Each structure stands twice: as C-alpha cells, then as structure tokens.
Amino acid sequence: MKNMIEIFKNRNYSLLFLAAFTSQMGNIIGIAAFMLYLLDRFSEKPFYAAITELMYSLPTLAVFFLVGVLADRMDRQKIAANSDWICAFLSLGLLGAIYIDWMPLIFALLFLRSAVSKFFYPAQGAMIQGILSKDEYTVAAGLNQMTSSLFMLFGNALGIFIYWTIGLEGAIIVDFATYIISALLIRACVLSEAVRLPNGTHRWKEINIKFVAKDFKDGLLYILKSPLLVYLIIGFFVFGIVNGGMSVMPAYILKYKLAPDNYEEIMVLVGIVFGISVLLGSIIASILAKKLKLYQMVIIGVGVSGAFVIASGYSTSVFYYLAFSSLVGLSLPFVNIGIGGWLPRIVDPKMMGRVQGWITPVMMLSQSITLGVIAMTFQKIVTVEGIYVLVGGCLLFVSFFYMATLPKHSEEEEAPEALGKSASV
After folding, report:
1. Distance, CA of 94 to CA of 235 (rounded, Å)
2. Domain interval for residue 89
3. Using CA atoms, how far apart are residues 38 and 332, in angstroms rounded to an integer?
4. Which among 134, 175, 354, 362 counts the fewest CB atoms within 10 Å?
5. pLDDT per residue over 177-220, tens digit each?
6. Is residue 423 scored above 50 in pLDDT?
7. Which ranges of 132-262 would DSSP assign to H, the alpha helix?
8. Which residues contact 152 (CB under 8 A, 6 or more apart)?
9. CA distance 249 to 218
C-alpha cells in the first residue's frame, strides 16, 4: 500500500493514470448500454450483441500497423490527447446516428471511434514506462488491475443504470464527457522530450508507407530475437479468444439459460460480484508479487481461472454461476499483474510502441475471429456451455504452455539493453 501511495506522488503518473481511467470508463459504460439496447430491441437476434463487441475489437486490424510506429516516432503526448479529442466528437456523431436510427451508420461510427481509440493506450503506456523506475512497474501493473476491477464492479452496473434512467443517449453523452476530461488530463502533463519523443523528432511527411513498413518489420524482428516475447505473444493470441468469449458470455448464459426473465438485473449482480472478486484478487496478487516470481503468478492465474470458467458454464443456478465467477475474478489479476509487471522490464522504451503494435492486433485478431464465429454459430451449432468450454480450454492450454516455456526465461530482464543494441530504432 505504501508503494502505491508513493507512486502517486509522481504528478505525471497521477495525470496519466486518471486519463486512462476516465477514457476507459466511457468506453465500458457506452458498450454496456449499447449491448443492452440491442438485446432489448432485437431480442430475437442475439448476434447483434456480438457484432457490437466486434465493432470494438475489429478496428485494431485496420490500424495496427500505424499504432506502434506513431507511438515510437511521433509525440506520444499529442497522440494520446488527439485520440481522445477525436473520439469525443465521434461520440457526438454517434448520437446523431442513433437519433435517425440507421444501424449501418451506428456500427460504422462505433468502428471508427474504436479505431481512433486504439492509438491512446500504446502512447499512454509508453509514457508511463518513461516516467517510472523498474521497481515501480509491478506496482503500476497492480494499480491498473485494481482499476480494471473497479470498472468490472461499477462499469457495467453504471452503464445499465444510465440506460434504464436516461437511455442510450445518456450513456453516449457520458462517453463524450470522459473523453474530453481524459484529453485535458493528458495535456496537463509536463513531460521531457525523452519521454514524449524517445527516438527524436519526426515530421508527418516522413511517415510514409516505406517508413511504416520498415518500423513495423523492426518491431517484429525485435520480438523474434526474444523467445520470452514470442511466448508471451502466443499467449496473447489465446487471450484474445478469451476476451472475445467473455465479452458476451454473461449476457448469453443469463438471458438464454439461467435468468431469461430478469437477466438485466442479474447482470448487475454478476458485475458487482465479479468486480469485488477481481478487486480482492488484485490486492492479494499485489502482495504476493513480492514473494512469487512473475511467471509463477501468470501460470497459476491462467490455470485456475480456466478451470472455473469451464465450471461456470455448467452452472445450474444463478447462485452457482456467481460462485464460480467470483473464483475466476480472484485468479485473473495474477495473470494481468504478472504480465503487466514483466513487459516493461524486458522491452526497450524506444521499442515499446512497436512491441505493443504487435501485441494488440494479435489479441484483437483472435478476439474478432471468436466474436464472428459466435455471431454465426450461437444457438445454431454452439451452445452456451460450448462457449465456456472453448474459453476455459484456451486458458488451460496457455497455462500448460507457459508452464513448459516461461520458467527457463524467467531471468530475461536485462533484455532491453541487449536487444536494444541490435534493434533498429
């Protein structure tokens, strides 16, 4: 706890942390409200809910080759702030599309806003790496996990509450406000040029196709030179499948199996239980991070959560589903804190944007494929239980894979210097 208090004495970190918090909050509230809107209006077409999540993940594949390059070559502070400004105004456009009730335009704007938002986190994360010490990375990862748990606890519930009280339009207005606040917080940071522009100044006219292709290739070569990074990215691909399934699984199992008549109210309860569990898991994982090796945290978290995800799919009542969901929530923070504290230690700050530029699309590719498959096969070929078996099985696979590969690379923490000398930056 003392370390967490100390890290907030860094003004720039506090501003960047709050900026990410507000930006993410708007995203979660808007998506939760929009999914409920579609499930209410098109209850006979559950694939619309999967399409909504797809509009959040699929855009990554359209911009992944630019995201990391720009985060490494251009002013990271301006990229993060401008991403927020543009998303805010696209939210206003989304309000207009909802008013005229044209679904193709609504999905198009969701797609575009999501694409723009993808530029925020690599730039914001790279700036945080530049202002913290190596010992503070795990603390920051723990704080990020606690923040995510708060979103799980209050995000969906708040989105549902706003939808119930002032409608979908109210949720979109909240999106708009949070993007504006996030942009202002980013602009308030006072950062050195080494943090904003670690690779020097570049002009926009220099960022041509040839330049982007070369930088993108350099990022891939940098990753391939580190077996540890390769193994982690293989895991991220599977995590994308997990994210795709878990984004719609609670709504599906409640609406179509456990609580068809009052699934919205139960979704609020699930969110509260899961959020509290993740928050407790974050605190426990942050404490144990000083006693366990990071790879041990990842392996334990992935394996335990996978087993209970499968069990939750076969729940025969809401009570059992809540119980299994809470156990999943307790174990997942071990994964996020382990990986979140590891990556900044093994990646050269000059290459962080390009490494993230590969990690994010790998996850979103598998997430998009998963959501597409669910949209086409749910209730036709795949059952609710089948989705849970798929997601839990993927987690168990990663646990065994990491058990076989990560321990022998556990000391690979001096890699940034070694790899940095051989990487083209």
Report:
1. 35
2. 2-422
3. 29
4. 134
5. 999 999 999 999 888 888 888 777 767 666 667 777 777 788 78
6. no
7. 137-150, 156-187, 193-196, 209-224, 227-246, 249-253
8. 271, 274, 275, 278, 329
9. 37
Token duo for residue 327: 């156990």
Give the Cα separation of 51 and 132 in Å (integer): 38
pTM > 0.70 = no
Report the domain count for the chain.
1
Residue whose C-alpha is closest to residue 26's, from 228, 179, 215: 179
In a 3-state reduction of DSSP, which class is residue 375?
Answer: helix
Lowest mean pLDDT among 60-69, 268-277, 392-401: 60-69
HSE, CB side, 13 Å, CA atoms: give it for residue 398.
30
* Digit-coded pLDDT (tens) for 341-363: 777 777 777 777 777 777 777 77
Give me the chain's average pLDDT, please. Answer: 78
Q: Measuring CA to CA, how many Å separate 173 from each of 29, 67, 201, 213, 260?
A: 10, 27, 36, 38, 30
Q: What is the pLDDT of residues 240-254, one digit of tens each?
A: 777 777 777 887 788
* CATH code (residue 93): 1.20.1250.20
C-alpha–C-alpha distance, residues 197 and 7, integer Å: 23
Q: Check residue 105 and give its pLDDT.
A: 87
Q: What's the rounded Cα separation, in Å, for the pair 270 and 227? A: 38
DSSP 8-state secondary structure symbol assigned to residue 74: S
DSSP class per residue in 299-365: HHHHHHHHHHHHHHHT-SSHHHHHHHHHHHHHHHHHHHHHHHHHHHHHS-GGGHHHHHHHHHHHHHH
